[in-house]
Amino acid sequence: MGNRFSLISGLDPQSPVPDHRGAESFGSWCKELRTGNAAGAHDQGTLEIRITEPDVNIFKKIYPNDHPHVAGDRRTFSRDAAAALMDRLLEYLEPPTGNHDRHDHPEMPAISRILSKLAIFTNRFPLYLDDVNVTKRPKQGGFADVFEGTWKGKAVAVKRLRAYLDPSINRERLAKTFMNECLTLFFLKHQNILPFFGLTEFLDTDPSLNAQRINGLSNSLEVMPCLVTPWMNKGGLQEYIQNKVSRGRSKLSQREVKRLLCGVATGLAYLHSKNVVHGDLRGANVLVDEHDNPRLADFGLSLVLNHFATPTSRTQSQSARWLSPELIDVKDADPEEPSAIPSCSKAGDVYAFACVCYEVLTGRVPFYRFPREAQVILKVIQGERPIKPTEAELQKSSCMFNAEIWAITERCWKQELAERPEMRAVRDHLSEGGRRLEGLAY
């Protein structure tokens, strides 16, 4: 079957092919979905799939010699047959040329829905990696601990949600939500998006790390599914900019600043075109690859945790410095009720993009003058924003000030959602020869 998984995971055709088999242990967290409506199962040994109109063509191509497929038919699969169907669907998704996005496949919505059921029923994630070695203690990110490791000779980041360490959280429900979100990552591919290699798990057994790959121990509270992505040696935006400047450059040019932020806008516009909300955009979640392209990371993780967070806990784990006013103004909500949390949105991402622009232009986080989150929350709700950097501050910045970027920043962090532009419009404005944003003065 060649390199069929290399493209699905966002790897180039020369990269190692992930081993997607044998993920029995991870799926044990999703055992409650094997029965009832969620899995469509008659019992725990079979999976029933009702063929809808969009599915007919898929089944005709995958099973051409079977009896005619008609909408409304019901097909029952054993666990082995369901695993075989998953493999056939993955093969069916691979384009002949390997150069276009799987989300653009005309039957992607139907295939994604079927794959989700199959992954849960078979206890197999389509890209499960069982040969990841964790080598270094973690760095803390917004929602996850990030370990450094290796996979087939490549440096990788292994991200473990810290929510799994919270004894008050329903771990099975969290794992189910997490896996569903990972199935979205599974189909995304773009030059400004951090590739998703797959999932792994390990047991953190020793304070000095000594983390071991294990099999069949998912009932242990120490074992958690972890995201595996490429390790970006150039780090996040600020680290990348500081390293550039420290190598003899006085400041990053206006052109270079615009190029970086255009890459961020392009990646975010791509996510929004697939109806994916980032939910935690900030400079630290924009990594830079070996070709100096910015890549968005950690998108979707905040959406997973919002299922379990309260208004109070979200502002504790997700800094208000990048949150739009509608996401933190919960004065009338029950502070301990998860359903009271406003959903992350594309408009919220646009606001966060403005904050990333501020970080790049100034080298500081938004509202850096105010150390307490409560101060920031109050100012954002009241409509205040970080002020334009002074001449003294610009002297200390690693980037040349760009008036055009500042004008876009002020447009994107407007208080009212309707006044913020869509990310595709921002992307077009920043692109060479792209359409300009109307009424932008600078």
Automatic annotation (TrEMBL):
Annotated GO molecular function terms are: ATP binding; protein serine/threonine kinase activity
Q: Which UniProt keywords apply?
A: ATP-binding, Kinase, Nucleotide-binding, Transferase
> Per its UniProt record, what InterPro entries does this chain match?
Kinase-like_dom_sf, Prot_kinase_dom, Ser-Thr/Tyr_kinase_cat_dom, Ser/Thr_Kinases-Pseudokinases, Tyr_kinase_AS
Chain spans, region Disordered:
1-24
Q: What residue stretches are annotated with the Protein kinase domain?
A: 132-432
Can you tell me which residues the record assigns to a coiled coil?
A: none
- SUPFAM superfamilies for the chain: Protein kinase-like (PK-like)
Against PANTHER family, the record matches this protein to:
MIXED LINEAGE KINASE DOMAIN-LIKE PROTEIN, SERINE/THREONINE-PROTEIN KINASE TNNI3K-RELATED
Protein name in UniProt: Kinase-like protein
- What lineage is this protein's organism placed in? Eukaryota, Fungi, Dikarya, Basidiomycota, Agaricomycotina
